[in-house]
Design brief:
4 copies of one chain form a homotetramer. Chain A has 11 helices and 12 strands. Chain A has 286 residues and is of the alpha/beta class. At the A-D interface, helix 5, helix 6 and helix 11 of A face helix 5, helix 6 and helix 11 of D.
Chain lengths: 286, 286, 286, 286
Amino acid sequence: MVEMNNFGIIGGDKRQIYLAKSLVADGYNVYTFGFDQAEEIKGTIPASCEEIALLCHNLIFPLPVTFDGVYLNAPYAKEKMLLTDHLAGQMKGKRIFGGMISRLKATSPLWEQAECLDYSTREEFAVQNAVPTAEGALEIAMRESLGTLNGSRCLVVGYGRIGKVLSDMLAGLGAKVTVAARKPSDLSWISLHGYQCLDIHKMEGNTDFNFIFNTVPALIFYRKLLSKLSTDCLCIELASTPGGFDFDAAEKLGISVIKAASLPGKVAPKAAGEIIKNTIYNMLEE
Amino acid sequence: MVEMNNFGIIGGDKRQIYLAKSLVADGYNVYTFGFDQAEEIKGTIPASCEEIALLCHNLIFPLPVTFDGVYLNAPYAKEKMLLTDHLAGQMKGKRIFGGMISRLKATSPLWEQAECLDYSTREEFAVQNAVPTAEGALEIAMRESLGTLNGSRCLVVGYGRIGKVLSDMLAGLGAKVTVAARKPSDLSWISLHGYQCLDIHKMEGNTDFNFIFNTVPALIFYRKLLSKLSTDCLCIELASTPGGFDFDAAEKLGISVIKAASLPGKVAPKAAGEIIKNTIYNMLEE
Amino acid sequence: MVEMNNFGIIGGDKRQIYLAKSLVADGYNVYTFGFDQAEEIKGTIPASCEEIALLCHNLIFPLPVTFDGVYLNAPYAKEKMLLTDHLAGQMKGKRIFGGMISRLKATSPLWEQAECLDYSTREEFAVQNAVPTAEGALEIAMRESLGTLNGSRCLVVGYGRIGKVLSDMLAGLGAKVTVAARKPSDLSWISLHGYQCLDIHKMEGNTDFNFIFNTVPALIFYRKLLSKLSTDCLCIELASTPGGFDFDAAEKLGISVIKAASLPGKVAPKAAGEIIKNTIYNMLEE
Amino acid sequence: MVEMNNFGIIGGDKRQIYLAKSLVADGYNVYTFGFDQAEEIKGTIPASCEEIALLCHNLIFPLPVTFDGVYLNAPYAKEKMLLTDHLAGQMKGKRIFGGMISRLKATSPLWEQAECLDYSTREEFAVQNAVPTAEGALEIAMRESLGTLNGSRCLVVGYGRIGKVLSDMLAGLGAKVTVAARKPSDLSWISLHGYQCLDIHKMEGNTDFNFIFNTVPALIFYRKLLSKLSTDCLCIELASTPGGFDFDAAEKLGISVIKAASLPGKVAPKAAGEIIKNTIYNMLEE
């Protein structure tokens, strides 16, 4: 029988495993599909999609639901699962939570009969994920550097969510923080937080940094700007492709650029799973 | 002759005096009208509006340009100046910077012939003014209290610009900070900054505070909520009228509520003048 | 009958009044002498010294016990009380807590028969009092300045308890903090906290500050150094007499120096009273 | 000829390599012995001990000078070098800087004829090394954990140099920090910094932590206390042997304890080398 205290988790990586554990810890019954190759997730009940549809009203798909638009994103499943009309038909009337859920809806018109909700586009989801992203960036910086972040000159490019969290954390470690941004109001925020501010269009005048963290998905560090950096400067790319660095030029100039994409799921899957849970709880309350 | 390095300052309070001084320090020629009752503003040249119009392209009016829609806001002028068609006609083709400039435009259709720009509606203006507002609030809290902010339990209501700056400053002094907000993304920000977060709709469950700073211009502290506060709790109202407190109820309950409006001009006129200058510089660059 | 849950409070200013209230709030019976001119201290019982000696084992004297070595420090007493052999004799066998208690012991040899303990020389007492001192200094800086502490250039001279607390608080408000000290290990601490550090013997090279807070009780700001400061710079003297400034020279040079002594009792008597209480509790536990 | 701008570096690990580089960058002539198996240290001149003694007045030995009291600590040397009377005799009249230099002096009475100075016992050396130690601890915590430090409950045991730096950094990352200490004045400092404080003798009442960092070299986490921790709690041992944990008990209880000794040289050899340099500069100035 459908029970409001049941959740079905269909596919996903480590984040969904920790999401499942966290739901169990909150007292929910959790049915899982697509984790037969993972270690047992204590307290959850493995089930088929059909069973899950019978037992649960709220179903949670991974982020992204699918990489290729054909198969479910389910790295811990023994067999790949096709996203078919049949599956969509089973889910009629259900409330489906997913990340990048438009990709799911594109697989069958029958998903229209379910209530499909995307947790990955929620503002608070993005805000919370800035934390494991920033910590992951710090971990990389600490690991790859022979010096310390304390006392180092750090440039954060971009003052969106990740730029904000990262610059606060760097300052909290005692780094000398400069933030490059464009909007006058962002420059005001940067300045009042006590960070040096830099107009993103005038970066050539100030390039003496030990660490550069880029969060802007647009080419900023082109050849000429890169050529002004010290080869001791460590660059960490946090923006999605194509990112801010001319990688070829950087390589020729001997500048290290480390691509650090999708950090939350990699460096802090437990935190990332709990962020999905928190976001879904908010959506359920609304 | 009109000279681009000239500025005309027409009316205003202490903020405009410091604005004038700061422009002089930056190397501009500054002509002033409406400060004959103030101390001499070193380096500026007193002039009539007519002279200013002849000499300057950029003219700066106060915030607000006028309180009553009839006279110029000019507390340091010996005589009140009517905002007339004649004045507006003199300003044809000029670039006019003002605060709440729509009030100026309402005084004459001839203002259409000037380029009227409002610095008070710019985002970076509001951001920067959050700083003297927050410091003014801290100064009041320190002055009125017999204890210290360090170690005290502080509630900040609202997480807009002032709420953000104030909660960071309180934490920087070592207070235990709780922030009340409504949006899930704000609650995420509050939480990741390490502050206790409180749903603004569920404040009755948590009322044990030494200081409450309200920034939300809507009645939140109605009688029942006020009755749960300790009479030792000091409330500071930073929101514009009507504000967040039922003042009558507070008085009857013996709760101190201090109204602290328009703090920047009062507690830090120099900073406030420089903020106007910075904002105008940004507008000139665009 | 002597009761371990009784405390006697003999003389003192507002701090002792709040100390008394705080002891009452913790459930103790509190007998007071020397507050007949103050408002009623709710929950306490006024008594004579003789009665207090009969009822209490633990007696608390003010800080300082006496200013002149002759009379009790008791600004709220109607009549001055001589510190006599008779009083000392009544206190035989009692545990006496006082501030600068050696002054009490100097009034009569009979105090040797009591256990006289000084709370004002305890390290944690001094540490805790650095907080109201630093906040008091910030309050003065905010009140006297036309600008904001945020973004201002602040110099803290000395890196003892007050220097440490004050520099952290200034940084927490977003000031640009420089600290002058002498010992290499202090300079290392200053630097790792992200503050600019300055050798106290080489201060002439760096004098561009908006605020200077001195905590070192030795002449540092002599005429030549003062002459390099801007007249806009606000100096706050936190060290005990003679302090760090040549006041005559400062006056002639038009530099404002504000003497701010004994801040805890003035700006935060409640906090100061609780600090006395906390310290006495620690002493009772040992 | 002996030249005051020459430094000789005799033995050591990566820290001494970066020390050498940093001295070169400051314009000194640097002669090195014991790095024939390392990559070329740009700008330095490999030499024998005899040559170094001829050319330099200031000689720098590693930390520790020797592990076994017999051979020089020189992991990058092809052949082990005995610490002989002959070597000591060559150094007559020289100024010798070393870490744990008493071990060097124990190898020959002839060292009495040199000026032997220990940089490793200087207070500022220890203060500065607290930074790479704390960052190394954070790097381990981030790497080993599936969650984030932000928002986690962290316990720092001990409030010496490392405890102070580490608790500030954890707070700077947004962790909820508790510090356990013993002295009332330390507890006052902890509390005024806004951290929860815990009496080190009463830790059983508060054991709900995600991370525990121990800096106290005495057994604190014995079996009974360990048994109250969650198995999800990650313990990091920063104190020198024997440290604070009963490792056997921890293993049986399934509690992870990571030993993290000598972090500066391991995680930040460049920073560690510069700290040696800064300390020697201070010693030269005195």
